[in-house]
Design brief:
Low-confidence stretches: none
Helix content: 25-40%
CATH architecture of the largest domain: 3-Layer(aba) Sandwich
Distance between the termini: 32 Å
Largest sheet: 7 strands, mixed
Amino acid sequence: MQKTIYGELKIFSGTAHPKFGKKICDYLNIEPGKAELFKFSNDNTFVRILENIREKDVFIIQPASSPVNDNLMELLIFIDAARRASAGRISAVIPYFPYGRTDKKDQPRVPITARLVADLLTVSGANRILTLDLHAGQIQGFFNIPVDELTASTILASKLKTIMKDEKDYVVVATDLGGAKIAREIATILKTPIAIIDKARNDNTEKVMSHHLIGDVAGRDAFIVDDEIGTGRTIESSVNVLKSNFVKDIYCASTHGVFSGNAIQKLSDLSINKYFVTDSIPHDYQKYKKYNQISVANLFGEAIKRIHEGSSVGELFNNNKK
């Protein structure tokens, strides 16, 4: 099969996280693409690409963070603008994928919104998706276009490793069964045991009831890991479970820091020594000493380079684990 050769690499950023896009461009040593984005007085979003992208390899960077619907709609409009400008290939770079928790029908008469978002991105004109640590792996199957899912597990593990003195004194803790995958990956890298908290939600109020602990944490320092921190209630209930099981110090690492409402302040008051969170979602942690932001921009930059050149993205993960 003949390999498709796309034109010059072009990277554009929406308004959700322009600093992240600039970091990626700095890594790739290219200038960010020029575009005009604003809202009319009637709240309609306008996007205009200010340079020629005909037959170019276009990457549009936009995490669907708060305000989620505005940022998602802006991304869809941006993709449509690129398609109508005759871009050779359009890749939607979504560091934080929206509606990832609504990935199945777990109640009667509810939508599968993650599938709807996948359809919207495809219909708008995206040719491929690049994202980070989806809340549920099956979301990849909602697309009929290629999806590259990066993971922050190696980067988070490298930061947690700087804390460690003796592997036997630490345990990686998953906040629920769904988070066991990333917890297992980090535990494998750190060569520590893993524990899992049996978590249950009784309704749609986002209240969490954490019950049983699977694994041994007594007398050890715990690394709570999760793909996403929302209201912080899961972390709060996990701390309570760990404390009741005689854990020593607690640290927390997460890919996506959503931090709904006053979650940042609330989590600062918990007996957690440090938080390690990536910059997939924009936040300013200067007021909070416990938070350490870890950039995944270079990871995305290298993935974009490999996609553009037609080389393996999977090898990137293998190299990071060495």
